[in-house]
Amino acid sequence: MIDLHTHILPGLDDGALDIDDSLAMARIAISDGISVVCATPHVRGDHDVRIEQLPDRVLALQRALDDTQIELRVVPGGEISALVADSLSERHLRALCLGAGDWVLLEPAPGPITDELPALVERLAARGARTVVAHPERHAGADFESLLQRLAGRGCLLQWTADFLAKSDAITADLISRLAANGLVHLLASDAHSSHGGRPLKLSHGAEWLRRRGLTALASWSVREGPAAVLRGGPVAPPVSVNP
């Protein structure tokens, strides 16, 4: 499996505290069947993340993993806040793409999703970047489903948090199942920040939740084929899609 959204880089944002925490997160990932993670530190005003330093930080973590014989591959990326996306230079925007592709991970502004998010997605597309929208479940509000349809219709991939699905109550589960059946659930990610607590660096429980809901093809695609296509930058075609 491939996790496109982790805060595994040590001592950088509100993610892994130190290299030992990063290695512990990696061991959890391996035990869950994850072989590749994307390091996506927050790029927003409340964290001093130096984009030009990220390649070296990813390389340093990969060396530590290799030295400890943890067979996890780390690829570069970033979680770009919608509040700063327009201000990024072209060089920085390219540097924050997930893996070798042209997809960026976009964190919606705090609060419910509004019309501004589809407009931002279009501006990013005009700059050559396709968008993965992070954790839409945290931004529900008025016209939530309609706005998700607009985002998906513009080619966005909607990335839901695996732990959220796995722990959803009956009412929430029914809502997510309907959204998934309507092509509004594409990718699963952990959004893990630490081995000491919070969301674990796991995907299998979210994929199993989709399987139990009868979404077998999506369960596999959301953690394997879909993330792999994003990292390559190739064509991305979810097994359930929404019409523009």
How would you describe this structure to a colleague?
With 244 residues, this protein is an alpha/beta fold. The chain has a single domain, classed as Metal-dependent hydrolases (TIM Barrel), CATH 3.20.20.140. The chain is built from ten helices and nine strands. It has helices spanning 19-31, 54-67, 90-95, 116-126, 144-153, 162-166, 170-181, 204-212, 216-221, 225-232; strands at residues 2-6, 36-39, 42-43, 73-76, 79-81, 103-107, 130-134, 157-161, 187-189. It has a six-stranded parallel β-sheet with strand order 3-5-6-7-8-9, sandwiched between helices. It has a three-stranded parallel β-sheet with strand order 1-2-4. Helix 4 links the parallel strand 6 and strand 7 (130-134). 44% of the residues are buried.
Can you give me a brief rundown of this structure?
The protein has 244 residues and is α/β, with parallel strands linked by helices. It has helices spanning 19-31, 54-67, 90-95, 116-126, 144-153, 162-166, 170-181, 204-212, 216-221, 225-232, and strands at residues 2-6, 36-39, 42-43, 73-76, 79-81, 103-107, 130-134, 157-161, 187-189. It is globular, with a radius of gyration of 17 Å.
- SSE class: alpha/beta
Indicate the overall shape.
globular
In the CATH hierarchy, the third-tier topology is known as TIM Barrel
What is the count of DSSP helices, taking H or I runs of 4+ residues? Answer: 10
Largest sheet: 6 strands, parallel
Terminus-to-terminus distance: 29 Å
How many domain units?
Answer: 1
What's the name of the CATH homologous superfamily? Metal-dependent hydrolases
Reading the helices and strands in chain order gives: EHEEHEEHEHEHEHHEHHH
- Which percent range fits the helix content? 25-40%
**How many distinct beta strands?**
9
Provide the spatial order of strands within the biggest beta sheet.
Answer: 3-5-6-7-8-9
